[in-house]
Predict the structure of Transposase IS116/IS110/IS902 family protein.
Amino acid sequence: MERESVNWSGGYMIYVGIDIAKKKFDYCIINSEMNLIKRGILINNNYGFSEFLKIIKNYRNIKIGMESTSIYHVNLYNYLIENSRSAIILNSLETKLLKSSRIRKNKTDKIDAEAIAKYIIIRKNNIITMDKNTENTYTNLKEYVYTYIRINRKITMAKNQLIVDMDLLYPGLTAVANVNSKYFMEIISNIDQIIENNYKIKYISDSKHSEIRNILINSNTNNAVKYDIDINIETLELLNKQLMKTKNIIEDEYNSMDSKIKTIPGIGTITGSIILSSIGDINRFDSIIKLRAYSGMDPVVKQSGDYNITSKISKRGNPLIRYALYLSTVSAIRFNPVIKRYYTRKKNDGMKGNKLLIACSNKLLNIIYSVLKNNKDFEDPLNNIN
């Protein structure tokens, strides 16, 4: 039963769960004994935010939690920060188990808000918090990184459609000339000249040029597909310009930051930007175990009788960190002396394939954690041996 709104600030700890949608958000206020104090629904705009602030203003000992729901939580979160109220951002995977454990399988935002509040109590010693003074350190970088990722995805979609069109019009061409090769755009921009033998494709052999020319000569006729190819070429040209512009902005942001992650061999500007903007303040993580879990690099352990079997990583955390870690690990195996030795040792022990790459990624994540946590440059331990 809902209690009247009274000042519970005294010695009590108050917990607020917020479930946010596009147009509104549900909130639920409970005490440490999980007794309901108040719940309600407000509009997801500045008016709703100010009304929410009025509701919680009497509570001093308060913890607020909300799920990271696409972009819908961002405005409320920033509003709370600006008004000296900190909040905990939870990955939806963190609260999913509690929500799904209800005996009655009804699902409402009101119930979800209560589940979030209860989750903060149950997991209060293991939640990765967002400190109000440090969370916005990489806000701009994070937004530019998201833009960069979105443009990259659009480029992939445009390329995939281009491959479909090219296979319809010029069967066999994409098998000979990879769409990601540096001469592919040169081919489709000079098709008529190549057919008429008035243009030589750069960077390829004469035999391959002849093979491509024969494919173009024996092409199908479909004006609609040709039009779609032209549209996709224009789209790719625009997207590539936008990607380069965004990359330059990210480089400027990254270069202006004083972060020791730059000293780690194998981590470049883009991968470093993704990792930094995803992690935020390293002090949110009081152990490497939490950072692994946040990154989805923690192992999945299956128990059967007296045996514990570690099969694979959970992949439940931030996918962007895993993406950046993968790219960085591939580079670090070549250029980072610590990772290079680790890779060689594990490979000689019989580890191979994806399991070997994951092991190296976790080793690199350990290095990232140590460097950021201690705020010290990367050093190869062997260099300190006399």
